[in-house]
Write a structure and sequence with these properties.
Elements: H1 3-21, H2 24-27, H3 33-49, H4 57-80
Length: 92
């Protein structure tokens, strides 16, 4: 894998993880949110070590799809708790 591909994979995965971490405040308002917040510790630790992980394109695609699905699944619950300013966090 070229250095450029490796950098691209790193950027894409970091973007997914950062997008999810940005939801921490919103998730605290959900009944199920506190269980998810515990997992944020794991995500934050992984993000700190991501530059040492060998990433393949299929891994990156799988994480991007999972992130997109997770964000879509949160729309409903967040709207039920009166989130007026919930914004879709697009993958970049």
């Amino acid at each position: 894998m070229s250095e450029l591909q490796s950098h691209s994979h790193l950027h894409r995965i970091s973007n997914c993880l950062q997008t999810i971490l940005e939801l921490e405040t919103d998730l605290k308002r959900l009944e199920m949110g506190h269980a998810l917040i515990k997992e944020f510790v794991v995500l934050k630790a992984f993000l700190e070590k991501i530059d040492r992980v060998d990433l393949r394109e299929e891994d990156v695609l799988r994480i991007e799809r999972a992130t997109s699905t997770f964000l879509d699944e949160l729309k409903g619950p967040l709207s039920l708790v009166g989130e007026k300013n919930f914004r879709r966090h697009p993958l970049q």
